[in-house]
Amino acid sequence: MIGKESLSATNLAAYHHFNCDLFIYNTYNGVEGLTISSDHVHESPTKLDAAQFKRGLDWEKHLFSWLDRENLLLTVPSYPMNVEDLVENILADERNHFFVAGISFMPPQEHFDEMYRKAGLEPVKFGLAKPDLVEITHLEDGVMWKVIDAKASRAVKTSHHVQIYFYTLCLSLLLPQYFFHTNNAAAVWLPPEDGFDTNTPSFDDLKTVVTSLLSFPLDEFLFRRLPTILSHPRKEVFWHYNALCHGCPFSKDCKQKAIRQGQIGSMSNISIPEAKLLRSLLQIWRDSGISHPRGETDIEDLALLLEDGKGLQKISTSYPVTLRKAKRILTLPPRNRKVSKTAAPPSPILQAARTGEIQVIPRRNSTCPKIEDIAVVLSLLLDPSASSGTSSIVSFSISIFTTETISVEIPRIVHSDRTDLIPSLAYIIDSILSLSRSLNKPPRTQFYVFSPAEHSALQNHFIDAALNSAYPTQDIRICIGALSQGASLLQTTFQPILLSGVLLDFLAKGQRKKRDLQAILERMNLSIEGNVEELKRRIQEELQRLQRDDYRQAAQQQRRDELGQLPRIVVLKSEIEKSLALPIPGFWNLQECASILLSPNLREAQCPSDEELYDVFASGGSPSALLEQRNRSIYAVLVSLRSHVCNVNDHLLLNEAKVLTSIFMDVCREERLRKLFYMQQFEVLAKLSDLWRSRIDGCPEAPILQYHSTQQGSKRLEHTFYLLSGNLDMAASEKERSFFDYLLVEDRDCDDFESDAHTPVEALFDDLAVSGLVFPLNRYTKTRWQSQNPTVQEELLLADVRDISVQGIRTKVVLQTWGDATFKFSEEHTYRISPRLVDFNISKILNALFELDLQHELENVWVPYIQIIRNPKSFNQEIISSTTRKMLGKAGSDMQSLFRTLDGLDVEGAKPLVLKASQNRAALHILSNRLSVIWGPPGTGKTHTIALSLLRLFNVYANASSQPDLDILPPKVVFVTAVTHAAIDAVLKKLTYLIQCYQSIDSLPAEWLHKVSIEHVTNGNDHAAPSDSSVFSLYAGTIFQLYNFSKRHSLSVDCIVIDEAGQLALSSAALVLRSLRPYSRIIIAGDSEQLSPILAVKYHQLKSGPLFGSILDTLMYVSRPSRIEPRDTRPSSPVPDDASDMSSQSTIVQLTENFRLNPDLGEFVSTIYSRAFRPQKVQARQIALALSSISQSETPQATNEYLRILDNIRKFLLGLSHVMLKRPQGVLSPPLLSSLNENPQLNEFRPLIDVIPHPLSLALIQLQTVSKRHRENVGYELHVKAEAAVTAALITTIQQHLPGEDIFVATPHRIQRQAVKAALSAGHFNASLSLSKIFNKMTIDEGQGKDQIESSVIVDTIERLQGSEASFVICLFSLPQSHIADLQFLLERRRLNVAISRAKSMCILISSAEVLRPAVGALTDEETTKGYAFLRAFADRAWSSNVKVDIDAL
Ligand code: SF4
């Protein structure tokens, strides 16, 4: 039994990769029968493993030789060095900036030993440390150093962070600190995305992390957890056999142990978090107090638990989320209607492990076809040593399996190397298409690969090929058309609308040349041969065909025939995991799967392993025969899968394969438009896929309602229900409009979708047929409803949620319904309600993009939309002469001086017309430039600035007769838009107010105001066109109303203003920007640090900048001044214009004066903006005084947990008031400002600490939820309940002492919102505070003739609070240990910023250790790290207190 008895950084990294205590324990202490060599994870038992390792070495070599060529490399001798030698080597080099390679040294063991000794723990020994590079920068007063490791992976991993942190920690203790400064950062250098063989390394790929952020979790690991693990008795060390164990030297041993001991790891594909969840479920059951038999092993206990109906019932009441997750892991139906009150059905995955037999998972599968006529199976040989993902396919084999009826007109087998892949696929697809044309009944065809890795390599290969002209375009088009997901949605649903709509408009405009007609025919995939007349006729005929609605009918037919959507290429491994439970512990590959599913006598059961295949390739042989054999195995496995599933239930595989089509329509030709076009479609597809997935299982998560009564509403009947389970939400605004965005069906006990042939009625609903229709339908649109499946028409209603309210412990839901369903509501019955796709805009956006593309290509005009995306600077420079610029600038300056003078003379009404310095810069920019991006942190007066700038603009042009030769268009027609109605109203209100101010100043000429007309477009289809060309017409409305308005009157617009542009997607902005005429103006205002448009899919950003986010992000990125270093790609932090720099070069102006936030909050929030903004408000002393009266109030005796919470919260608020009044207090801990690093290079992460004394407006409650019953496994619901109780205590106390102050409670999740409402309505803290008082505007008479003060409490999700403000903001950002998977969502910096910056006077953040000190794994995501840095900055400068809540007592 020999262990290493010391650990290297690589071992620590491997521990984090395997996430296994036993791994590090065995490595250090040894294990019987195994000898551990150093860094054994890099041992290379197979050529495949060696190839993976080789890629890392190749990248390192490539990087070092590039650094050497660039004269940036210093290589030191590779023997272990002492520090003095290392220092000497570094100081001997005279270059200012270089990288040192080859360093190896012994860690500062003595220092570490001392730390362990102080903590009372056994010291851990560490071996030689070998960082790849240390970056050195000579400074005036010393040397700045940074550790860098070269890693050949595609993204940074936790294991990389562990390594660079360890090296940094060691060096910071070893190097003389007076001269060697660490810059609190370390980095991982990744290879270029397109491969390092053809591209040089780039500084852009240096992924830097702030080491102080890593220190929280990693110091805890190194100096507490690690010694504890290593000193445990072996049998108490945590381990779980799972897919990550692949490559672990102890794998064989653990696999046997998992089976022998009946561990959870004896089941297949259970991840570590899943295993932990199952263990905590078992613990909950064991602690539940119900007597039950006990098994010998974990899997036996799980089986007994599922048989214990009473126990399950009890758990489902207290831990519904945990139980639901456990059921999903155990492949059980989430809600089983027939047997929910007794035992659960047996879990197939559990049964497979217990019996050793294959089990069928009785769940519907819509993604694996039950039959096809032609199966095309692809095997790809991937080379892990390839320098990029796209070049990883080295060889392939395609085999075709057909039913007997198909003749042999298609090739049966093709294999070759990667260069032939696309031509071969195109040839096969073409052959199948020809065969289809020759047969009466075209063959149903399905493509298959085995692994997700092959699937993604194939998709990458297509994308690569599409961007690389080396292949014949036709082949690529055929492949993408036939095999790319989403192509069919475009062809059948959107293409007809686009082609017939936009093309008709386009063709109607004037004479078209032959070239134009050919371009159109190409887009329609029609022949371009013939003379002009023939071409025209061909287009006309096709358009007529489209108008006859053939396509729509075909689309509907296709959607009706298919439940969900079959993937174009099925990944067989995923389908097997979905439908079968295999008796293989931990994880399995094709070889194991074939050996268990196929009879050993079959040739197909002998499947070559990945290692065998790679060995042949690496030895220079041809892998064709083995790949062909692999294809045969894959097909045999597919057949076996079907036979297993169909033997149990013939209805589980829902779909048949489809007839192959390969229509690839390149609707947009301009590169960026084409990408936006596809993104819009994928958005629809992603949303639909989510809906389909849940509907096929009968919407297991859908809220269940019990009918109560029906009454007459204002327009229609309203039905009242009580919510029995689940969460239901109602849009906060716009309830005057009915979207009927839910499906309502009867939830019958007899429905057992998991095994019955009965299809859930929601799964038959065709969303796309009615997604853009306004309900209730009229007699024209009703035909669309009639095209729905008859069952849908009979059994389903569309529902609109009119109201949700809490009544005691029940939630009342009021619905309006629409439809012809024949069932009658009854109190006896329950109903389930689930969302549908509502999208009024997608086809409009696609239309607008297509239209812009046609204009761009065929009309030979400058299209402003494309110009600003491509090159906003040139858009700005164009046209305007320096004389005009000067003249406009001077006019603006004159106006500012005039109002400043008037204000100085105390003229009433003048003050609001004077802009602050940065606002005035913005106004001058708007006057004299075509494109202005006004960027401002919260509360800097963006709306005020744009409203006043517009008035100044009108003013200047109204007097233009006295200023000749202005060569920029006068703002005759102006559109003002924003995403929300509230933002549009705010601009209109501001304009009205400012006009009143103008008019109130008698000495000012105001005739020009008569030429200005301002209209709110609420219904674009009915709004009147501008009537008088001599006036300036401003139209404000949503993008959709302005789109309708401009379409209806064919309006061209001279100026477009977009407010809150950070929320508007670039693609949606096309709806208004399409109307811009050349030489026009664009004004964009917003804050890119606030929440951006919500997209269903996370898109990879392009190297050219963000295209799939908001228009603000895109413009701020592409407008970056060139002086920004290339590696700084954050769109949030461009260097804004200098005050002096008003040239045409710049487009961005940052507003810096803050009107909302007080100094503390303002300066805290400014830590994420590149330039500080100046707070204008001072803290209200009256808040402190009012809170100080808490001491005089009666604090009831803490007889229960709620009163104890209230007592704590009162003490907390009282402590805050003492802090504000500079009185001593002992409840709150002061901010940790002194611990912050003041390095100026880290401004991005660091607050401006030296200018702020102790901030008084930032407060932190560290919530700890404890439970004797549940130990550390506090479930999410219980934690949220505790968080809500603390929040309710805060609200109650603040309301009591500061009744006039508004309070926002910002909740990331809806469940938190519901919990806070429930806590308040329960009246634990103040029975007299009724819900209606809390949630409706509350009017309090202050008496003595004072005005009435309105205060309100709003509890809402952060998305909905954006754009509003309150005196107090309580942000709920806490999590229990059991729910840390949610951390990434919670730590999104924009979300935190929006929540915190709503506060005018005080922000109280409720968080927990899990969020404030996240696990190191959370920090590999760049965005999460930014959010965490922001949260830490808050925590470090907040006055804080701990609140412990005993959830057992709630
Ligand atoms: S095989 Fe898995 S469970 Fe066993 S020591 Fe390795 S990582 Fe841990």
From TrEMBL:
<feature type="coiled-coil region">
    <location>
        <begin position="525"/>
        <end position="552"/>
    </location>
</feature>
<keyword id="KW-0347">Helicase</keyword>
<dbReference type="GO" id="GO:0043139">
    <property type="term" value="F:5'-3' DNA helicase activity"/>
</dbReference>
<dbReference type="InterPro" id="IPR003593">
    <property type="entry name" value="AAA+_ATPase"/>
</dbReference>
<protein>
    <recommendedName>
        <fullName>AAA+ ATPase domain-containing protein</fullName>
    </recommendedName>
</protein>
<feature type="domain" description="AAA+ ATPase">
    <location>
        <begin position="928"/>
        <end position="1122"/>
    </location>
</feature>
<dbReference type="InterPro" id="IPR027417">
    <property type="entry name" value="P-loop_NTPase"/>
</dbReference>
<dbReference type="InterPro" id="IPR041679">
    <property type="entry name" value="DNA2/NAM7-like_C"/>
</dbReference>
<feature type="region of interest" description="Disordered">
    <location>
        <begin position="1123"/>
        <end position="1143"/>
    </location>
</feature>
<dbReference type="GO" id="GO:0016787">
    <property type="term" value="F:hydrolase activity"/>
</dbReference>
<dbReference type="GO" id="GO:0005524">
    <property type="term" value="F:ATP binding"/>
</dbReference>
<keyword id="KW-0378">Hydrolase</keyword>
<dbReference type="Pfam" id="PF13245">
    <property type="entry name" value="AAA_19"/>
</dbReference>
<dbReference type="InterPro" id="IPR050534">
    <property type="entry name" value="Coronavir_polyprotein_1ab"/>
</dbReference>
<keyword id="KW-0175">Coiled coil</keyword>
<keyword id="KW-0067">ATP-binding</keyword>
<dbReference type="Pfam" id="PF13087">
    <property type="entry name" value="AAA_12"/>
</dbReference>
<keyword id="KW-0547">Nucleotide-binding</keyword>
